[in-house]
Known about the structure:
Elements: H1 3-9, E1 21-26, E2 30-36, H2 56-72, E3 81-92, E4 101-112, E5 115-124, E6 127-139
Antiparallel strand pairs: 1-2, 2-4, 3-6, 4-5, 5-6
Amino acid sequence: xxxxxxxxxxxxxxxxxxxxxxxxxxxxxRAVGLKNVTINEPFFNGHFPGYPVMPGVLxxxxxxxxxxxxMLSSEGNxxxxxxxxxxxxxxxxxxxxxxDTLILEMEITRMKGTIGKGRGVAKVGDKVVAEGELMFAxxxx
Length: 141
């Protein structure tokens, strides 16, 4: 999926849309996204001056957006909104800096009604930079 298709699926917009492309998708099951991290990101102005590092919470949010694309691409979920409901066992293993290409892999591990859980891994190259579980809820806007 390109950026236009992503925007047709999830409601996030600049500066909070943190996924540039979806590389793989199995609707309702799994998705792999890509984020090109550039110095032009607004958060780098203050995080940190002279030592730009992507905030870990935004890496988790980018993974949540990839999960939302996977879930909201399913016919029965189109038009809904995905809300982040929890972060469990999340670890940040390395820094993400301008110039990095962040690969965001999410697999939905459990879905009960409108509440789901997924396992996410964020990588730069072959190196895992963050991983953990995210909980989400699907809602009607």
